[in-house]
Specification:
Layout (H helix, E strand, L loop, with lengths): L2 H7 L1 E5 L3 E4 L4 E3 L10 E2 L4 E9 L4 E8 L9 E7 L12 H14 L2 E6 L10 H14 L9 H6 E11 L1 H16 L6 E7 L10 H4 L2 H14 L26 E7 L5 H13 L5 E7 L6 H4 L4 H14 L1
Parallel strand pairs: 7-8, 7-9, 9-10, 10-11, 11-12
Antiparallel strand pairs: 1-2, 2-3, 4-5, 5-6, 6-8
Length: about 325
Amino acid sequence: MDSTTSTESEVAYDIPPILKVYKNGRIERLAGFEVVPPGLDPETNVESKDVVIAEKDGVSARLYIPKTTYPPTQKLPILVYFHGGAFIIGTPFSPNYHNLLNNVVSKANVIGVSVHYRRAPEHPVPIAHEDSWSALKWVASHIGGNGVEEWLNKYGDFEKVFVAGDSAGANIASYLGIRVGLEQLPGLKLEGVALVHPYFWGTEPLECEAERAEGTAKVHQLWRFTCPTTTGSDDPIINPGQDPNLGKLACGRVLVCVAEKDLLKDRGWHYKELLQKSDWPGVVDVVETKDEDHVFHMSDPNCDNAKALLNQIVSFIK
């Protein structure tokens, strides 16, 4: 075997079940690459289409609108959603996220904007966060009805905007809530932030992390892999307890969903404590799902607990 062949097949970095990086630099994603087209979903009567936000950076989104009463007789709240996948895998176009947005948009009667940001390791964190900020600014560019997208111009209620996400996407949603508080988007009112199994971390282990040394080591390693320039696990991007601007969160309501068996569970509860200790004046609720693990609702969306989780998000928006 010559040296070229050996570097093609030799693995330099392996994160099951997410990806493999080979010694020659080739990256193989192991999940989250299936895609489904947009269109009218017959089950929920929600229509979707894909839009370009920043062509040179490859930032785009899938937009959703309920067709039950179309055109809507009143303006609809806007939900801007960020997918999970450790900042590495997944897209808004994968079947599980497409189905999730169809269901949330239908039940909550909102316009959905599911954001496609650039992913690590080709585009290290915080590129995902900057792309997501660009996407939120793009949404805000429709205030006044002069944007490029008719659904937002005609039917979007910019006084009722929500940001949400799961896992890495929840991390991004929290970051954006703080950034809106710092930089403002005039005319856009951030009503609430919903974080599902948020990917937060820190150097000091919390209770459930201390009992799972192997898992925690992997999370530390994963974070450094996705953000090579990081100062470590107390970087404010991954550890909200180290972010001096946490109290600037721009919304009045936060929902945090955690799962009993999830290694990241205590980080969700800790986020509530941190918010309450800060000078943020809003209300934060944590909902814990028993007997479930990280993003269980993505792998088994039809189970009773997944349906209950969906309804919690919907009632938070409504």
